[in-house]
């Protein structure tokens, strides 16, 4: 048996989302526990994150929240299958998830070019800016030194 605990009094949606992501990671480790140690590592850099995010998306849709008894109190009731509720949920998911796709796409191409030697250490920041602009349309806010490579950090 596995569980995720937290030291929070009032649980927010963000904390619940993170708990489901962690449960996705736990499930990943459970599925691979009988494999040799070499094969227990994740298939790719974001594979385990994708499993956790998928579980969180499934768990936090309005129908699942209603089934778990987390959506309503006694004073509020509405039909979770109504098209407006579903549309609002899908819009929230799109606005949360879609903006990060171009960033991760640019980061993946940049890392691949770094590892295969296409990009040298001296030009890595310039190439990061090029990839970021090419895939996201986001340019540098101001000129910086060639070796400043803080742009690839991902803050959630």
From TrEMBL:
The keyword DNA damage does not apply. Zn(2+) 1 binds at residue 49. Its cofactor is Zn(2+). Its EC number is 3.4.-.-. Keywords: Carboxypeptidase, Disulfide bond, Glycoprotein, Hydrolase, Metal-binding, Metalloprotease, Protease, Signal, Zinc. It is an enzyme of class 3 (hydrolase). InterPro entries: Peptidase_M2. It comes from the Eukaryota. GO terms for biological process: proteolysis. This is Angiotensin-converting enzyme.
């Amino acid at each position: 048996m596995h569980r995720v605990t937290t030291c929070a009094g009032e649980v927010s949606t963000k904390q619940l989302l993170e708990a489901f992501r962690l449960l996705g990671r736990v499930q990943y480790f459970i599925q691979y526990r009988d494999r040799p140690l070499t094969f227990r590592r994740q298939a790719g850099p974001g594979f385990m994150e994708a499993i956790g995010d998928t579980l969180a998306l499934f768990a936090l849709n309005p129908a699942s929240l209603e089934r778990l008894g987390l959506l309503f109190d006694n004073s509020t009731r509405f039909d979770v299958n109504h098209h407006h509720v579903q549309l609002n949920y899908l819009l929230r998911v799109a606005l949360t998830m879609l903006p990060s796709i171009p960033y991760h796409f640019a980061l993946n191409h940049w890392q691949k070019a770094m590892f295969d030697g296409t990009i040298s250490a001296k030009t890595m920041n310039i190439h990061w800016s090029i990839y970021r602009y090419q895939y996201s349309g986001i340019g540098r806010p101001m000129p910086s030194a060639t070796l400043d490579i803080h742009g690839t950090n991902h803050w959630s």
